[in-house]
Design goal:
Layout lengths: L1 H18 L13 E4 L3 E3 L6 E10 L3 E9 L10 E12 L4 E12 L10 E11 L8 E9 L4 E8 L1
Antiparallel strand pairs: 1-3, 1-9, 2-3, 3-4, 4-5, 5-6, 6-7, 7-8, 8-9
């Protein structure tokens, strides 16, 4: 059972990353280009969704915690969308910290036999970081939630 969940999580992450591929960068490399390798989901009583795992990319790899909170305190039903906020905190192995905060929309997704994604947040962030070249940048980010499997992902790109 665990092996199939890991394989499904890897397939989910690969599909979602391909579907939300990074924008084309003609020239300067992005200061933030992070994607998660995995994620474990928790649904606290306050109605938020919390995904934790590891992320890799620019400016550094590390562990992350992503918290998505719909404005009305509950995640939307399939086919519905509502305003939400999200905070993604990444902690690097050398003590670096990156915090992305912002607003966007969380959407309830239809779950079928080959689909595990139940909710997806997409929004714009502002970054605060202990890494000077990253502090103050902005861009887009997303957090995916597969509540039926207890999994999730996070990705962010500056723009």
């Amino acid at each position: 059972m665990r092996t199939s969940r890991i394989a499904l999580a890897a397939a989910l992450a690969a599909t979602l990353t391909a579907a939300g591929a990074a924008p084309a960068f003609a020239g300067q490399r992005p200061k933030i280009a992070l994607s998660s390798d995995n994620g474990t989901l928790a649904l606290p009583a306050d109605g938020s969704a919390v995904v934790t795992g590891t992320a890799s990319g620019t400016p550094f790899a590390g562990t992350y915690t992503a918290v998505v909170s719909a404005d009305d305190g509950t995640l939307p039903e399939p086919g519905e969308a509502e305003p939400a906020t999200a905070t993604v905190r990444v902690e690097g192995t050398r003590g670096q910290v990156l915090v992305l905060t912002g607003t966007g929309t969380v959407t309830g997704e239809w779950v079928g036999p080959n689909a595990a994604l139940t909710h997806k947040f997409v929004g714009r962030y502002a970054a605060e970081s202990t890494v000077r070249r990253v502090d103050g940048t902005d861009g887009w980010y997303s957090v995916g939630i597969a509540a039926t499997l207890g999994l999730g992902y996070s990705e962010a790109y500056d723009s």
